[in-house]
Hints:
By secondary structure, the protein is of the alpha/beta class. Helix content is 38%, strand content 18%.
Amino acid sequence: MRKIVSMPGDGIGKVVLPESIRVLKAAGFEAEYIHADIGWEFWKTEGNALPQRTIDLLEEHKIGLFGAITSKPKDAAAEELSPELRDKGFVYFSPIVGMRQHFNLDICIRPCKAFKGNPLNFIRKSNSGFEEPEVDAVIFRQNTEGLYGGIEWTNPPKNVRDAFETHPKMKNFKDTPNDELAISTRIVTKKASTRIIRAAFEYAKKYNYKNVTICEKPNVLRETSGMMLKIAREISDEYPDIDLWDTNIDAQMMWLTKNPEDYGVIVAENMFGDIISDGFAGLVGGLGFACSANIGDEVAVFEPTHGSAPKYETFDPPIINPIAMILSACMMLDHIQEKEKAQKIRVAVAKVIEEGKVKTYDMMKLRGRQDVLQNGAASTKEMADEIISKL
Ligand code: NAI
Ligand code: MG
């Protein structure tokens, strides 16, 4: 039987992940779920939010389903470390970043597809009143390098500063004292760019998207964005039926509300991908609907875009929307060639949304309080039950 590493993590991750497994089972997907420890609890008790045994399980079984984790700033992290581990050199490290780096999960896929009838869908004014564009964009975010690559300094060491000084533009900063200087780099490689751009074109071909857009800023970021665009132009020659578009990240954010329905697959560097995927997610229902996949050569991890929403952790019954997690589980099914079951679940989700009888609090635009249930909102479990009833 197929084995899936199940990592609920913290907060609402512990709520939505079991619900998604219930839906997977109801759709006829048979698997053994192997629980793996990840998150804040393990930082506090072991000084490591991503224990080696979890890495080993992923190494062995290759496919992970992940809820969400809680991260806190450095000082808070140090304070909450259990007393016997303090002053032993433990430093908090985000387990998601850790997973992405360890397994080189360099391709992040974030589909943003509007479900018909979702009250949270973006509405645009038209000549004849209002219209609801059919948004169906899939963001390919480079997950491991770029501006989030982590290569940065405040008060850079001398050899680093010296190396930077070899660039003519550094003369603008020649009078800035070293301890007043902070540098974050944006490193882009040909290898990773080629991998993600090719993956984007393959995805467009497989799922019949008409265009692939490189969303960067090559007129300013000539080197990094420029390299990505050049690679995209080369690769696009192999896909004559798919148009290659390129947009600038700033203009793209404006076009987000003007003509979002025109875009198919969009590729961007780490930070731009982060921005653009949140932007598109906002058009199709926000965090309750935003699903994602982190794909490496061998290992793949599927997770909702949202975090652990700690405020909701203790709600009984839970009220948060399980759809983002359920759609992430569908992406897992697609990845392991269980496309029919994935489609079955998506159709069930679509039916529930279109009927509009069962809605979680976010879909009713209510403030997230326990009493939303008295005001007609469905609980997390009721939403999952309704989806299951449509399968
Ligand atoms: P968050 O995504 O956890 O929650 C923000 C707000 O979005 C919530 O208060 C809630 O109003 C709404 N929301 C989130 N998920 C929802 C759902 N399924 N249904 C309905 N509404 C939902 O982000 P926040 O508050 O910035 O971070 C909380 C913690 O999560 C932090 O410790 C942060 O570091 C961590 N985090 C973890 C991520 C991950 O595990 N991938 C990603 C983002 C944040
Ligand atoms: Mg984000």
